[in-house]
Amino acid sequence: MYTFKKKDQQGILTVKVSKEEWEKAVEAVYQQNKSKFKVEGFRAGKAPRRVIEQHYGEHVFFEDAFDAVVNEEYSKFLTENKKIVPASHPHADIKSFTVEAGLEAELKFDLMPEFELPELASLTAKKGQAVVSDEQVAAELEASRASHARYVEEEKTAENGDFATIDFVGSVDGVEFDGGKAADYRLELGSHSFIEGFEEQVCGMNKGEERDINVTFPANYPAENLAGKPAVFHITLKKVEKKVLPEIDDKFVSDTTEYETVEEFKAAIKENLAKMAEEKVERDYEVALLDEIAEKANITLGESMIEHELHHMIEDFEHRLSHQGMTIEGYLQYIGKTLEEFKAERKSDAEKNIKTRLVLQRIISENKVSVTEKEMDQEIANYAARYNMNGEDFKKAMSPNDYAFFQNNVIMTKVLDLIKSKANKQ
User: Fold this and answer.
1) By Cβ atoms counted within 10 A, which residue in 33, 186, 363, 401 is the most buried?
2) Nearest to 4 by CA among 84, 68, 89
3) Total number of domains in the chain
4) pLDDT score, position 426
5) What is d(CA 125, CA 287) in angstroms, rounded to the nearest whole number?
6) Strand 102-110 and strand 10-17: pairing?
7) Sign of CA pseudo-dihedral 16, 20, 21, 26
8) How much helix, strand and coil, in percent to the nearest 5, is found in the chain?
9) What is the rounded radius of gyration, in angstroms, for the C-alpha atoms of the chain?
10) Kind of pairing between the strands at 150-153 and 230-244
11) Domain range holding 186?
């Protein structure tokens, strides 16, 4: 038997199990699991329940019996109350239990928020304009120029602005540490890309010279074993170079690009930047529309929903940090924040993520947005063509997760097109 009540955005299901129902559940668990217990003097699966309970403890079947009766009542509740949609897994607490009186348990779970979508025609978010400045074009030209720079060795004393090729070995308390060793490393002196004081001490060295450099790692350095520690780097300066940039002229363009003149190259750069700017404007417009829908829908979220989203966000962030050889603990120390402070800063992002998903799911459902096989084939073919692959071969090699990824892309494109087509129509 169960009773249900709502409190804010939470559902509370109280489950009561009589003595007879509890005994039946325990017996069922015994029958399902008796072959797993070994009792001397009995063949597998033949030991009586009372013997197993005496041997393994009288509560040996209670945990599974509890899960069985609670899950059965929870499933029954959901079947009989289809309008109640949980937004989180239930958390169960035993309120009272004795073999003689039976069980009373309480299940708490977040409820899917109830909200009404605003009329899409009432949306007022405006699409911005894609603008490309002369400064942006000039920056791209300069980047192209820098990518074709030459490094000319000079017989001179190293100074700021030079590129020093060095071998180095770092140690703390006389012991080398991971990541503290490199050979033929080209370092731009004055770039402040190394620990404070490192580059300054390379200045003044000459080719072939060796030197011990003393530095101290910052207190908030990501690697906890090095944070705040004094270190010694043994340096060998192998050469000193000047960076020589080419002139931007027609010869440079024809030699390094598919274009013949500087003007042609600049026009191509501007066209590409304009395309990128237009794509960004489009993405920003879509985000603004979704934000407006979520705000007007006035969605109230349960705390555990937000906590669950935050948990996944932190997990994803930890995964990305691991690819950089960092831990979340080291990163937090580096930025000087606790995990709780870090989560608090991202709480609004978590809420926004959930609300965006909810409004998208509702729009997809109410407008019956779906994907045809033909649309999927076209999406896959377009992707494969970008990488010079055969669409059919690529499709055959796809995993179910790959297919779901492309399917979601098509649905998202269709639903966003739908929203944009109806926005600003009043």
Assistant:
1) 363
2) 84
3) 2
4) 56
5) 10
6) antiparallel
7) positive
8) 50, 20, 30
9) 33
10) antiparallel
11) 150-244
Q: How far apart are CA 103 and CA 16, in angstroms?
A: 6
Q: Which of 119, 115, 126, 106 is nearest to 13 (CA)?
A: 106
Q: Looking at the structure, tell me whether residues 154 and 99 fall in a common domain.
A: no
CA 108 to chain centre: 28
pLDDT tens-place string over residues 20-72: 999 999 999 999 999 999 888 888 889 999 999 999 999 999 999 999 999 99
Full-model pTM:
0.73
The pLDDT tens digits for 70-123 are 999 999 999 999 888 888 889 999 999 998 889 999 999 988 888 999 999 999
123 domain-assigned: no
239 bridge partner residues: 165
Residues 37, 52: contact at Cβ < 8 Å? yes
Instruction: From residue 387, give the alpha-carbon distance in Å to each of 313, 381, 404, 407.
Output: 31, 10, 20, 19
Q: Which CATH number characterizes residue 183's domain?
A: 3.10.50.40
Q: What is the average per-residue pLDDT within 266-284?
A: 97
25 inside domain:
yes
- Of the residues 110, 136, 169, which one is the last residue of a structural domain? 110
Contact between 302 and 111 (Cβ < 8 Å) = yes
Count, in order, helices (H) and strands (E) of the chain: 13, 9
Q: What is the mean pLDDT of residues 268-296?
A: 96
Do residue 106 and residue 172 come from a single domain? no
Which among 319, 323, 329 is positioned nearest to 220, based on CA atoms?
Answer: 329
What region, left, alpha or beta, does residue 179 occupy, with left being phi > 0 and alpha being psi -120 to 50 degrees? left
- Let me know: does 203 contact 187? Beta carbons within 8 Å: no
| DSSP states of 84-132 | --BSS--EEEEEEEETTTEEEEEEEEEBPPP--PPPGGG----------
Q: Which of 244, 266, 286 is the last residue of a domain?
A: 244
d(CA 346, CA 340): 10
Assess whether pLDDT exceeds 90 at residue 251.
yes
